[in-house]
Amino acid sequence: MADMGRPKSEHPKKKILSVRVDDSLYQRICAYAERHGMNVTEVVLQALEKYISKRE
């Protein structure tokens, strides 16, 4: 019988990062995500990657 469910990722994400933001910033992130066809996690991860790369 074949395995069911989501296929295993080549680079599984094992760490969880929790960030508290105010309502205003959260709404801005959600609006940006919707406009660009992304979810909140994708927006935050891309923003962090861009910020860190810029600083290195």
Q: What labels would you give this structure?
A:
Ribbon-helix-helix protein, CopG family; Arc_rbn_hlx_hlx; Ribbon_hlx_hlx
Please trace the helix and strand order, writing H or E for each element: HH
Give the CA-CA distance, first to last residue. Answer: 48 Å
Helical content band:
40-55%
Radius of gyration: 15 Å
Shape: extended
The low-confidence runs, each spanning 5 or more residues with pLDDT under 50, are none
Whole-number average pLDDT? 92
Percentage of residues in strands: under 5%
Number of strands: 0
Helical stretch count?
2
Indicate the multimeric state.
Answer: single chain
Largest sheet report: none
Strand-helix topology:
Blueprint: H1 23-35, H2 40-55
Helix pairs in contact: 1-2
